[in-house]
Design a protein that fits this description.
This protein folds into 2 domains: 90 residues, Winged helix-like DNA-binding domain superfamily/Winged helix DNA-binding domain (Arc Repressor Mutant, subunit A, Orthogonal Bundle); 34 residues. 66% of the residues lie in helices and 12% in strands. The protein is elongated, with a radius of gyration of 19 Å. The chain has a two-stranded antiparallel ribbon with strand order 1-2. Strands 3-4 form a two-stranded antiparallel sheet.
Length: 152
Amino acid sequence: MTETDIHTIHKKFFNIVKLTVELEKTPRHFGTDELLTSTEIRLIEAIGDNGETDSVTELANLLGVTKGAVSQNLKKTEKRGLTTKDEDPENLSRSIVGLTSKGKTAYYAHKHWHETMDGGFKYYFTEMNQAQLDFLHEVLSKIETFLKSAMQ
C-alpha cells in the first residue's frame, strides 16, 4: 500500500463522516407537515418499535440518552401533535408514551425511508461471501474503536 492509497482511504473516510454529520443535522419531512430532526424521529421510532408502552426511563435506556433528554424531546413532539404522554394508571409515578396518528404516519414514513434509501446496500451485503463480511466487520470495528478512543 502506498502513501497515496492511505491518503485516498483517509480522505474517503472523512468524507463519509462529514456526510453523516450533515445527514444527521438535516431535518426532514416524514409523511407529515412537520420537519423532524434525527433525534425526534429516533424517539418516534423507539416508541413505535416498542409497542407504545415505554416509560421515559425505558426510552432513555433504549436510546442511550438521559431521561431529561427524552423528556425534553417528548415535550417538543407532544407540542407538535406527534406523541402522547399519559400517567400509567397502575403506577402514577410512571408515564406511558405513545404515538398519535400523526406520529404513526411519521413512524411508518421513516421505516419506508430506511427501506428505500439504502441504495442497494442490503442486496450488496447479501451478495458478499463470509470472508468479505468478516473483513468489513473487522474494518468497521477498528474504525469504531478509533473513534471511541479519539473521544476520550
